Recover the amino acids of this structure.
């Protein structure tokens, strides 16, 4: 169990969050399609339902509330029925909406998505992106002043829909020392917030490319491309932390004077990624406000976004689902579900990596191999020897840790997407069902001595042998424990702990 992150989930509950930015109404039109139109080569949709959800800054506020925080939203809407519907959604979610203003000649932004049989066919956008009026801007600043001293964290959500103007950014920067110490920005143009000196800023990949002046998406590994550009991202945004989000690839976290930290996407099958960035930003903000370090905060945010994308429609993180994800219970699978799991990965064009082992006492060598294995694909599945299998392979005194404990520990690693036990001496039955694209083992094997290699090659997969960490093995750990026990009790050093 990842007790640090579970504790963080408890710590963010009750924090007071102020979200400022573009509130959007996300509307989902669900239907079925059984025929094509006569007048054009397009499907005819029989509409079954319309569902309204919060989007943009409104979704950030809803996610804050879903994580247990108290959320207040400041934004400007039109005087229209869409504003009424969005207000109803926010109220039902427990978000404080007294900071919402209405502007007579403004149209509330709407993003309508039309889906048939689970597939999105069309998105229709309504609402102009012109800046809010001077009167609305003054009212927004007045309400900002009313709330800044009462909250623990400020989140600025700029979707370029006109609420977050250069004037508002200047007002925020002028008040930087008078409000909460934690300020997190999620914006289309991160460099516009340089003078704000945000605690953290969350660009996605395309936004980060614009920050460093790269006009095109470079070929190759996205994480490697940005690995050495952290200082430039920090300097150009003025932020104390930059969390570069990479969708299913997780995030890269940059802080001054520290090496980059990589987090991995968590959670189950993604139903929709709409709004996942809102979830990540507000979860990151809450974690930082709860005094988590940057790496742990980004890990928490990745876990929250992973839980959110399993929901239908715009992503909202369910705290109970997040707790299950953090404790690893949703990542422990079985042989019976592997074929369906593989089919879903194929449908989503995910490259599946598989490795296996006893993982009796998890150590740095294990973590290094698993982290590097994850980098070879999109999802990492780990096969784990049953207790009986470990005894056959390692002897009657093993395993030290029972199967249930080994599964839970592995499932708590963010680089691991699924753990599955097997009873044989080899995981070939699992591999036949999973058919991994890449099979990973340590370099203490060779292709000639690895019995699973011909099986993987039969379906066109690749076998990768990764270098091992020197002197890292469960056997050595057990031997050292025995040596220490034989040496007798050791007196604790003054000021130390047992």
């Amino acid at each position: 169990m990842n007790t640090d992150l579970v504790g963080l989930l408890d710590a963010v509950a009750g924090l007071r969050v102020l979200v400022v930015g573009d509130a959007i109404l996300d509307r989902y039109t669900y239907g079925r399609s059984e025929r094509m139109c006569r007048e054009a080569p397009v499907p005819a949709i029989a509409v079954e339902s319309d569902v309204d959800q919060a989007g943009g800054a409104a979704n950030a506020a809803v996610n804050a509330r879903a994580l247990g925080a108290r959320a207040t939203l400041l934004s400007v809407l039109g005087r229209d029925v869409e504003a009424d519907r969005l207000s109803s959604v926010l109220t039902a979610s427990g978000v404080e909406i007294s900071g919402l203003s209405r502007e007579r000649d403004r149209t509330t932004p709407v993003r309508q998505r039309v889906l048939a049989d689970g597939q999105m066919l069309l998105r229709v956008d309504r609402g102009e992106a012109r800046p809010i009026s001077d009167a609305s801007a003054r009212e927004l600043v007045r309400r900002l002043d009313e709330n800044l001293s009462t909250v623990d964290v400020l989140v600025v959500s700029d979707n370029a829909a006109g609420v977050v103007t250069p004037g508002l950014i200047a007002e925020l920067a002028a008040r930087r020392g008078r409000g909460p110490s934690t300020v997190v920005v999620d914006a289309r143009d991160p460099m516009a917030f340089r003078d704000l000196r945000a605690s953290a800023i969350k660009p996605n990949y395309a936004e980060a490319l614009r920050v460093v002046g790269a006009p095109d998406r470079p070929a190759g590994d996205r994480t490697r491309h940005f690995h050495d550009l952290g200082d430039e991202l920090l300097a150009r945004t003025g932020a104390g932390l930059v969390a570069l989000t990479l969708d299913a690839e997780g995030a890269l976290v940059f802080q001054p004077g520290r090496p980059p930290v990589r987090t991995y996407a968590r959670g189950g099958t993604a139903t929709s990624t709409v709004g996942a960035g809102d979830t990540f930003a507000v979860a990151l903000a809450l974690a930082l406000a709860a005094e988590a370090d940057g790496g742990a905060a980004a890990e928490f945010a990745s876990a929250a976004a992973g839980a959110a994308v399993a929901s239908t429609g715009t992503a909202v993180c369910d705290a109970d689902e997040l707790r299950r994800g953090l404790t690893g219970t949703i990542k422990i699978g079985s042989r019976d579900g592997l074929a369906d799991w593989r089919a879903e990965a194929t449908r989503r064009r995910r490259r599946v990596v598989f490795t296996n082992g006893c993982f009796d006492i998890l150590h740095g060598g294990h973590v290094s191999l698993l982290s590097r294995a994850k980098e070879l694909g999109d999802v990492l599945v780990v096969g784990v020897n049953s207790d009986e299998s470990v005894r056959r392979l390692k002897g009657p005194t093993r395993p030290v840790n029972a199967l249930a404990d080994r599964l839970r520990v592995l499932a708590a690693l963010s680089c691991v997407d699924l753990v599955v036990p097997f009873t044989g001496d080899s995981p070939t039955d699992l591999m036949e069902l999973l058919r991994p694209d890449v099979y990973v083992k340590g370099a203490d094997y060779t292709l000639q001595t690895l019995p699973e290699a011909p099986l993987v090659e039969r379906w066109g997969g690749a076998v990768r042998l990764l270098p091992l960490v020197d002197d890292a093995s469960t056997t050595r750990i057990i031997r050292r424990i025995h040596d220490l026990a034989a040496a007798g009790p050791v007196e604790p050093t003054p000021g130390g702990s047992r």
Notes: The chain has a mean pLDDT of 88. The first strand starts at residue 16 and ends at 21. The chain has 18 helices and 18 strands.
